[in-house]
């Protein structure tokens, strides 16, 4: 899926925390803010929450604790932010020469979207607000073209981007966006940099303004910085025949993968949001194998899934070398990651692989026996690493279902859907798209 969009602003946290956790006496006209951030539902500590004042931030440690030194005294506004959780703002009174405490609990966002093939005259869009237990259909023939929708990127409980195959009847591309939780959807396909209609294979975004998209029938990477009013080409590769997936950790480091003109797999990387790019060949992939999804965690450690027994390949040195880390005899179509250890990969034959050690080892769950001859097209988890959903289609691709889990993937139950839709992609807010 490649929604991969994991927000790990935790890089260099350990070094920063070492400088913050020691005793530090504030100077006159300045004071300190300290406290602890936990989850609202369970009270567990949250690691890596950004505590933001102005343009600066500190981050919580493994116990959820933070210390923000030398804030101006008086009444100040401080934000607490973490991907996949509702952000919180607190007004705190900073004492001159002293320290005040502010403990905060963040509430997990339970919203997500799923998208798939056209049904009843328009592409399928489903939304959940209860972590995948139940879904309702959104859109209409007036808002959503009658095409196969291929990828979902859920940014918040209000903002979501969806890409789809080209709308040949209207002669335009399909890049849908909602800013009101799905009440209305707007197709931005006419603003794609003067390109003829292309099929969008993947879209990723960190907010409602900046997003990137790749196409299955071109060699370009598209970018918008104005909410989709206009899209420009930020990458045009001479080595790629078609792109299949794109992901970002932080809105700056962009990874995408595609099929090379001469066969094999190509991975592109931008360290600056798409301004400059580096290209990596993947010799661990064979000529007839094609990449289907890509995910990354800090390091950077990069994973790609693919077809024709590719399984899951990993690069632990930023794309320079690749090895197979999950072996599979079926096509794998979607990846999702939670933290740096937990990962899921799914695909044909009803396969779902779960790893708790960064895909060094994995086990096949086969979670939906009713679709053992079908395809699990997509998997996504909330930011608690426990609740998630997968989409599965029948062997014919005509019908399908969505299943949800609340224990990290060991037990799955069928979700409540208004109809047996054929779903291609599912994504929760804050997940790895």
TrEMBL record:
InterPro entries the record matches: CarboxyPept-like_regulatory (IPR008969), WD40/YVTN_repeat-like_dom_sf (IPR015943)
Lineage: Bacteria, Pseudomonadati, Bacteroidota, Bacteroidia, Bacteroidales
Membrane-spanning intervals of the chain: none
Alphabetized GO MF terms: carboxypeptidase activity
Residues making up the signal peptide according to the UniProt record: 1-24
Full protein name: Carboxypeptidase regulatory-like domain-containing protein
Assigned keywords, A-Z: Carboxypeptidase, Hydrolase, Protease, Signal
